[in-house]
Structure formats: C-alpha cells, structure tokens
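Quick check before the chapter quiz. The format below is the same one you will see on the exam, so make sure you can read both the input and the output lines.
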Amino acid sequence: MPCTDRKDLPDRAVAVSVLSLPPNSCRVLTVRCGPCRAIGPILEELAAEYGEKINIVKVNVDDNPATASQYGVRSIPTLILVKNGKVQDTQVGLLSKNQLVAILDKNLN
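Here is the expected output.
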C-alpha cells in the first residue's frame, strides 16, 4: 500500500483510516518541521518495501489538534505504530531507516 504522505487526514478520518487497518504506522507532524520533511522519503521507501503489511499515513498537528491531543503528541515528528486498534509503539524524533525497520519488524511479528 502506498504511503499516504501526500494528503493530511482530518481528525475524524484517523479512527477509520488508521485504527481499523492492522497494522499501521501513523506519522504525526507539521509541514514546518525539518525532521518531519526529512523522514518522509524514508517512510515512502518503507511503504513500498512492506507493501500491504503496513499503511503509513500523515496527520498534520496544525490542522488536526484533536488527534495530536488524543495520542499525547508533544514533539514532532512522532511516529505511532497502531496494530489491531491499539498503540504498539511510539517514537519521537528523526529516525534512520534501519531504526524504523527494527521497530516495524519487531511489531509486525
């Protein structure tokens, strides 16, 4: 499944689009954030490599404050791994591809 990094999901769509599709990774960011922009291409690569195993979506905290509040986001980028409707892992900050692969593989097994 391609990374839905090109569109923002509104607060009301997050529960449907993210929480109902196991497993998922939810990337929480703002467009002004340098590390958020830097991690984008890495997540695009992972979306292509993992295919249907994972759905990566972007939630802009500026446009969707309720979602950021719901997940306790205080810093960006925040990556939230949701599996079967439950948060499995949360990572804050810019991570390397190897770090992201380790997190995904740990939680996909």
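If your answer matched, good. Residues 1-7, 15-22 have pLDDT under 50 and may be disordered.
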